[in-house]
Amino acid sequence: MYSVLEKGGVCSPKGFTASGICAGIKASGNADMALLKSEKAARCFSVFTTNKVKAAPVLYDKAVLEHAHRASAVIVNSGNANACTGEQGYADAERMAILTESALNLTPKSVLVCSTGVIGHLMPMEKIEAGIPKLVEKLHAEASEEFGRAILTTDLALKSLAVEITTSKGTVTIGGACKGSGMIHPNMATMLAFITTDVELPIDFFAEFRANIADSFNAITVDGDTSTNDTCFLLANGMSGVSYDDMSLSEQGEFRAALMIVMKELAKDIVRDGEGATKLIELCIEKAESHEEALKMARFIGTSNLAKCAMFGEDPNWGRILSSAGSSGCNMVAEHTDLFFGDVQVLAGGRPVDCDREKLLAVVRQREYKVTLVLNIGFASASAFTCDLSYDYVKINAEYTT
Amino acid sequence: MYSVLEKGGVCSPKGFTASGICAGIKASGNADMALLKSEKAARCFSVFTTNKVKAAPVLYDKAVLEHAHRASAVIVNSGNANACTGEQGYADAERMAILTESALNLTPKSVLVCSTGVIGHLMPMEKIEAGIPKLVEKLHAEASEEFGRAILTTDLALKSLAVEITTSKGTVTIGGACKGSGMIHPNMATMLAFITTDVELPIDFFAEFRANIADSFNAITVDGDTSTNDTCFLLANGMSGVSYDDMSLSEQGEFRAALMIVMKELAKDIVRDGEGATKLIELCIEKAESHEEALKMARFIGTSNLAKCAMFGEDPNWGRILSSAGSSGCNMVAEHTDLFFGDVQVLAGGRPVDCDREKLLAVVRQREYKVTLVLNIGFASASAFTCDLSYDYVKINAEYTT
User: pTM of the entire structure?
Assistant: First the structure.
């Protein structure tokens, strides 16, 4: 069993410290540089954007992690994505890492770099260089929120969480923080996520991590675009003294479930904070031919502007959901499908059923609800999480300027 | 050479008559039933929605056209899509055809049916039955606009066009009308299109028709959804006395080019009339590996909400276009790409170039402009047409109710 820690975050697991400062990269004057450090070099699992256009820090980190799967720190900035910045951009990302390594007295290739913000501008390296020693000086163990805030861009809310699991070998902790609001979509879109744990994890845990990503950060969608900078790190420093390999099978299962909770809740926080979002909707596809098809269909519906506008309008528009499912390219037979808003059934065998209209409207007026499409052609299911499409989404994205 | 006919439309080619009436299907009181008739049975080429959820009239027409590739008339209604209406819906679609055949003294299976409007409601058959004799009575040869207006739903503008081509065998004409504003996307999304010609066309002309569809109606995108009812018919009645097979090769080329013009202009009219649209943007991908990849990438960018909001905000946001191209799944190398807004170059080799900001802003402030992304990895190119995403798109789609 796990328990959620109050004000938990990346610093909750043993041996992690962090800091956040205003380096003046953002015109707004909000915090825009952050540092996360592990006392002992941590095993690092990573997943990066699949976008063909990759930002300099993504290219740098991939190169570093190709050889060593360990990292001692991550230096992060918001306000500038260091994307489409060519060779100078790559040199700048590398320099951020080297300066941090030097300030922390670490060996080469032990610091990773993440950037998020506007594309196409060279990094303001003077500000970055001035910021690094300040971040190092400020490192402390109660900095989960400080770190979480400094990585935000158009986000409105801090996304930070930690859970504790008691095992027969001792207590272990999983923490996390992430950023992302617009451009959120399967495949790590404009999202930075940092998961920390004091468990020692074996290298083949990567398969578990990847599978968790599919049903958490890759199961959410705000607007269907993927970005140049998306990165998710899982840092495991083993400082609880508990090794995953030494856990019992049931304890391993509990640890994996707790990790999934942290990743999924952080992912859902991103959707809740989607640009202009007023609602979080879980789209659940049941009795599909395969988990892959179910997830693909759920994500496809989650990007339908028509469905998302109907959610904003609090209209239980099953026609748009069914039509979107039908154009997802996944297998389905209209005449076999059932559809539910919350627990109110609106379609049976592809035909509308008489339902209690007031009860139905009560469902779609909630801030969070679930839509379940039962395909009745197989045994697999999957969920995706999306938000509605509001006037404010357009406003934020029409007024944000390059 | 072709010339555009004033007030041209589906009735411009010889032997076609049409009509449109208010049958009371729409609450608005606007025209909602239409009839198109050819004096002689016409060869009929058809392309239907690829959505797995197909409306009853689509299923009916597919069944009819599987055996005979000819049709004498098309009965159309707006206001009700006759989709997700089960067996009763199919019986209603068939009944619409049979009643029209009977009122026109035609043989069975010679009338096709199209419906567009809300999903999931049974057809108001009393209104339909009362409307059919009125439509038959009103049939006349100057009815292009009347027909074009009666097929509209949330459309604001009539979409009707005809061109005339002079050949050594005589003058031939191509006319057309279409409807569609929201839910417009590649693969025939919520769109009805009727193309007429008095040329006699061979049955293998279907390949030409299909290829034209790819670069016209399937190259446009308003919101990325495909619908249950999309249909495009090309009716060729041969009443000009000119046969395609008798034309010279260059005349055939002129005919095909003119048909492409009619289809492409009607398709662009749909984008111009996209829900809440204030701009028409041509997204042109050049020097791609293949036409298919170029078209796929152009269409993918055309559905990016981030790119479309930036267009609405008149922001030449090349970052969103490049990032969207990168997440299209098509081959590209960021460092090789050049990007132009109109004729102003903003990226060279994946890096921003200094350009005249005023000239650039003048481009994106136009109602219609072209964005060209040059990939420099091959020799193929393709264009897609999209509109911007405005407050009004959200308003229309949040307030439209089931």
Answer: 0.84
